Structures are given as C-alpha cells and as structure tokens.
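Data deposition worksheet. Section B asks for the primary sequence of the deposited chain exactly as it was used as input, without tags or linkers unless they were present during the calculation. Section C holds the resulting structure in token form. Section D is free text for depositor observations; keep each observation to a single sentence. Incomplete worksheets are returned to the depositor.
Section A, Depositor: J.P.
Section B:
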Amino acid sequence: MLILPALLLLQAPAPAPAAKPAVVPPARIELTTPFPVHLGSVGPKEIREAVFGIKSTHDRSFRFRVLDLSLGLRLDEAQLAAPLQPGEIRMLRVQVDPAGLEGFIKGAVRLGTDDPAQPNYILRYDMAVRPEVTVDAARKSLGDVALHESPELAFRFRREGGDPLKLVLASEPPSYLDAELIPGGDAAELRVTLRPARLKPGVGAGLEVLKVATNAPKQPLFTLYLDWRVVLPVVPEPSRVVFTDLKTTLAALELTSRDGKPFRILKTDIEGRGFQVLDAPVAEGSRQVLRIRRTGKNAEALLVVHCSNLEQPLKVPLRFLDPKARPAKGAVPPPPPVEEHTHRHAH
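Section C:
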C-alpha cells in the first residue's frame, strides 16, 4: 500500500515549459529630427510645417503608406512614392493647419510599411495654439479713489488671424460705472469710468464683474473683474451703524483722520427720523467719537457729518433691524430676486 503514492507521483504530468517572450525586431528606421517635433506657439490661423527626418537602417528597400493623420494635417503622398533605400535619409514634410484647435495640441502621422515585422510607425508633434481673441488682463484695479475723482481704465482686446473683432457688453454695469466699447478693426477696448459721486452712502469698495461677448466662435464670452476702493480723509468705523436689538439704543461712531492730522466736526445732521446725535465734540482731534441714540423703530436714516478737512460731508447710514420682523427659525427664506447686473460691494 505504501507504493501507490510513489506510482501516482511518477504518473503526474510534467509541468509545461515557460513560454518564451516574443522577440521584438529592431527598428528599421531612425529619426534624424527631434521626437516629437515641437512647433511651439502657433496662431489660430497660422499654417506651419512639421518636418520629420527618416533614415533607413534596413538591409533592403521598403515602402511607406499613410494610415492615419491627426486633425489639421495634410501630407503630399508623392513624398512616399519611391521606396526608402538602405541608409537613405528622407525629409517628410507635413502641413499643419490649427484652424478649430486651441491650447496645447498633440498630433501624429501613422505610416504603414510593406515590412511584415514592423507594419507601422508613428511620427509625433505638438504645438500650443494661441486663442483667437485675447484681452490684456482679466482683472484690473482702479486702486484708491477720492470722491471727487473719476478714474478711467481700459480692457484691451485683440483678435488674431485678420478677421474683424466685434464686442458686445453682455452685462449691465451699475449706475456709478460708465462703460463704453471702442471698436478698432481687429482690436477693441472696453473703457470703464468710476463715478464715486453716484455711490450710495456707506459703500467704500467694490469688485465689479463685467461680461463681454465676442464674435469669435472659440471665445464667445469674457468675464472681467474691476476692483476699487474709495479713500476719504476721515474714516468712519463702522461704515454704517446698525441696531439689531430692541434693548440697545446707544451706539458709537468713531471718526479717524487718515493722515493723522487733527480735524474738527463742524456740524451733524440726520436725514430721517428715529435717531439722534448726542453731544458732538467741538475740539480738534485726529480721532472723534459720536454717540448715536435710537429713539424709535424707523427702519433707516442718514447721518451727515460736516468736518473741517472734508470738502463734502461724510454720510453714514443708520439702520434698525427689528428682531420681530426676522423670519422664524427653520423658515425657508424666499429665493433672491434675479439681478440685472453683477457686482459686489464692501462696506
């Protein structure tokens, strides 16, 4: 009985020999030009030429034929009519048309041969196709602006390729911002002017969003940003006084000289009802504090402060947010109204 395992072991089939890896035949050509061919920056309608240097390392002649071309390529197959002889170097020229393309593009020419060992070769190239329409900057700044100033700047557009450029303002600018489109053939400008005198009281800074449509198929819409900040000789803190509690009836408004020089509060007025200024200081100082009392439940009013270092009075909004008018917890607020123009303010 002890012999059976040995017999079974002797009868077990021998393991199959490991399969030998397929032998890859050596390449029959060498490239004498860079691989891939780099065409660099290319205009949207700029016809370029990619040149591939092919050297035969075969011991016999063989032929090429075109199997596939990337979009925008054109190859004159007469260049492949004659067989490639052993040791011959042939310059294969391919026309590259970037029309309809944009950004970094990779492409290739796939050539077939009559050599069964190596039936095809792939010749590669790349390029960066510039956009047809460009703008000098998508975001610009007017910086610090005084109330009496009307600063202006321009977003400059350019269309490459020879076609005329047409722009249309696709968003409505706010009332304090003038926007004008200046055409100029293959170039155009969007000229914007800030009018600080039209700003609502309490608005001290903004980020405007402007949309400009073009007649270029690949760049139909540009979104531009413009920021600005109003600089006053006297800085109010806060920029608006808001009461949010029925029990709170007194608030402080601090006025600070921007340059550190002393100034005097000449007069204060309140346009509206429900608020009162208590004992306005009369002495000079680089920092002044006004105490404001809420005397009613009026929703809003406007504090007008005349200062010795201001050509125009300072206007500070006063508001009372009645807590009884707030929505209950868990209540779903109504959807916000659709705005006709897009811009942001910083108060």
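Section D:
Residues 234-324 form a domain with the Immunoglobulin-like fold (CATH 2.60.40.10).
The two ends are 100 Å apart (CA to CA).
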